[in-house]
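BUG: 3D viewer hangs when loading the predicted structure for this chain

Environment: internal workstation, default settings.
Expected: structure renders.
Actual: progress bar stalls at 90%.

Input used:
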Amino acid sequence: MIGGGFGNILKIPELKKRVLYTLALLAVYRIGVHVPTPGIDTVALASFFARAQGTLLGLFDMFSGGALERLSVFALGIMPYISASIILQLLTVVIPHLERLSKEGEQGRKKITQYTRYGTVVLSVIQGFGISVGLESMSSPAGAPVVIDPGWGFRLMTVLTLTAGTAFIMWLGEQITEKGIGNGISLIIFAGIVARMPTAIGNTFRLVSTGEMGIFPVLVLLVLMIAVVGFIIFVEQGQRRIPVQYAKRVVGRRMYGGQSTHLPLKINTSGVIPPIFASSIIMFPATVASFINIPWMQSVAEAMRPGNVFYELLFVGFIFFFCYFYTAVTFNPVDVADNMKKHGGYIPGIRPGRRTADYIDRVLTRITLGGAIYVSAVCVLPSILISKFNVPFYFGGTALLIVVGVAIDTVAQIESHMLTRHYEGFLRKGGGRLKGRH
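Structure tokens produced before the viewer hung:
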């Protein structure tokens, strides 16, 4: 990438500073993943997690970048923050005070962000306490206890450590979004998934060399991953372009307008948000249940295992819900129609105003259905195949969608920074621009 058009990042001081700042904070996050929580026998914990690959704990560990497996200070990852964000967005629809805040611009957004932080701390305390209690009943296959000195001292220390770790990750994500490049929260999840890939690939080759896994299944999974990545890139670039015509206007002695353009509606307007939100909603209660050694709670944890029919149906249901919900939150057809009307724009064959808003809403509803089906297929089908092949790591369609989606969005932001500084000529020479981005 450096040798191509994006090598000119280093020639733009502000963009270079943003990229280096982002990489530095991601490096801090990865260092924190290796800082252990006090009072844990790391060898016994690693032996326990060796049996958790392909389970919900394995999925949670993937989102935390391996922090849960080590029970590091970042073991809870960014999921409590995402869960708090979901709760606040849902409450905005039903609580008038939050709805008013959401419409007050920058000040209202800051207030909602503050509430989200408080919610993150509360959820982290609850989840941290559940994990600390569950750890006291865990042991390695050889019978060695995971917790060296169980009791309320260990529980309080674990809750404080994990809550502080999540609060620090939340701060890192906000700093990346504000002063770096890309969405900080998404990039933290992206870094966690990518960082585990070398280990996962090494484990796969080890199983192939020992004969525990055949070469043919590995080749099938490799081809499947490449096909899914290609499909994700193709669909993520897909748009439904609604033609828009602007009427001619005479201002003084000059005539303005009269041009034709289009309103681009992405097939997947919500991006990687639905699978992240869906995973967060499912993992919060299921992870706590898996740590509590009560028969009916263990049954709940087993039912929520990836590859299980109940888990996959619930996952797809949440994906559909968040595809529509997030699209409704971020895209308002009424506002778009009003802005078009103010500037003399109209859709050929559709009356301006309410009729235009209804038409845009109808088109958006249809393509969101296609986007939800696409996200569900990408997230669920590879995961089912991987569970059938007994792959020794959890790197299904959800991870692929997040990695590719976040990479596309980050590259698009870098590209926009370069274009605003008149570097389009460099991009064309280097072939750095993404196809389809105009």
